[in-house]
Amino acid sequence: GFICDRRFTRSNRQGVLVGPCTFLCGHMCDMAHSTPSTFRFNRDAVERLRLRSAFEEDGFVRVESILSPEQVVEVQDAITDIRKRLPLDVPKEHQYYDVPGNPESLKQIQQLHTHGEFFSDLAANHALGSLAEALLGEPVVLKNMQYFNKPPGTSKATPVHQDGYYFMIEPQAAVTMWLALDNANADNGCLFYVKVSCMRDTNPFHCEAPTAACETPNLIRRMNIPMQIFLSLPCCRG
């Protein structure tokens, strides 16, 4: 399934999110995007309106079964292929590891859509763009596609953060889309989101190093966020 969250709004406020397990992540911004493809966002007008309403109210929306099981396998196979080609076929600055020098600790590949035809086609997919456009209510363009991995034994939880703090784009309007490649839950590392946090101002507590103050419960308290709106978002792959 997909989890989409609002990272920028016209009022320059961003949502707060922590995660993930194994995901593809794409950032869509409000510029022209239109490319036909085999993957389709086949929701009728009523369903699109429901998703848009939930997105506007909560700051995120979960959409199940965007990809078929067969298509999920295609994505996983493509990930396996690009991992076999590391580190030579991907620029060093696009690769991130939990343990430097240990290829099994790969945690992230940036700009994935520039590293092979499969992912460039997926990035140009009309299904993704049409979903983002339905949520934002305006045309979009892809800014980045990333692979996120949380290998057991080496990974750590990602601190609560606002992506908008790092994006620094104008105008302040975007949606981030997370596609689960594994079944993700609260135990193995699904996404967490602070409901309606898109209506908050940018918070000053952004962690650049793992310290006790950056642990999720401590950050949530420092940000004066009620724990009942700090939600886990389990998601089935695809």
Task: For the record, give the distance between the C-alpha atoms at the N and C termini, rounded to a whole number.
Answer: 4 Å
How much is the average pLDDT?
75
Number of strands: 10
Percent of residues in helices comes to 10-25%
| Major pleated sheet | 7 strands, antiparallel
Beta percentage is 15-25%
Question: Which stretches are low in confidence, meaning pLDDT under 50 for 5 or more residues running?
Answer: 7-22, 30-40
- Strand arrangement across the biggest beta sheet: 4-1-8-3-7-6-5
State the secondary-structure class: alpha+beta
Q: What integer value in Å does the Rg equal?
A: 17 Å
Order of H and E elements:
EEEHEHEEHHEHEEHE
Number of helices: 6
Categorize the overall geometry. globular
Identify the quaternary structure here.
single chain
Concise description?
With 238 residues, the protein is an alpha+beta fold.
Word description of this protein:
The chain is α+β, with helices and mostly antiparallel strands and 238 residues long. The protein has helices spanning 45-58, 69-84, 117-123, 126-136, 164-167, 216-222; strands at 2-8, 17-18, 23-29, 60-63, 95-97, 106-109, 141-148, 174-180, 191-194, 230-233. Strands 4-1-8-3-7-6-5 form a seven-stranded antiparallel beta sheet, covered by helices on one side. A three-stranded antiparallel beta sheet has the order 2-9-10, with no helix packed on it. Strand 5 and strand 6 (106-109) form a beta hairpin. Helix 1 (45-58) crosses helix 4 (126-136). It is globular and about 45 Å long.
